Amino acid sequence: MILLQLFFEFAKTGLFSVGGGMATLPFLYSMAASTGWFTEMDVANMIAVSESTPGALGINMATYAGYITAGIPGALAATIGLISPSILIILIIARLLNRFRSSPLVQKMFYGLRPASVALVAAAGIKVAQISMFSPAAFADSGRAGDLFVWPAIILGAVIFFGQRKFKKIHPIFFILFAAIVGAVFNFSA
What we know:
The protein has eight helices and no strands. It has helices spanning 2-16, 25-35, 40-51, 57-100, 104-133, 136-142, 151-166, 172-185. By secondary structure, the protein is mainly alpha-helical. The model has no long low-confidence stretch (mean pLDDT 87). Helix 1 (2-16) packs across helix 4, helix 3 (40-51) packs across helix 4 (57-100) and helix 7 packs antiparallel against helix 8. Helices cover 78% and strands 0% of the residues. The radius of gyration is 19 Å and the shape is globular. 20% of the residues are buried.
């Protein structure tokens, strides 16, 4: 039963997460809240693992979520669920695109999808920033404003952000490896 649930939850995610892997994040947060299969911190870990492994981000996250929920069968069910709508839609579009390619309505629909994709990715980015760079629990315990922020994560994020902007020729994987090493050496953990 859990495998069918995983398949259908990720099929819904695959059907409506327009804009790529980061657009799946709002759906994963909603799934975490509604099913209890994983936590918001698990979603943050999914992002970290998925960003640092080869492959499409959304598929990597579906595989990870399925695996922590129901092992290898869960990983397969979630992954197949996520990609099934895309495969079906692409097959249908490929068949119909030549007929409707120049349609003003179709062009307007595709143009309208762009801001939706940006909004989903931005919402996911804000949620990831909240989880990784703010600690309301530490602030509640101490009452000190400085404890609201996870300073090592903020500093690391700033170094990576400005380093990537300055050294554009360095491949992003090196920044990811650098962040992983810093996290391990300085014992970053929740």
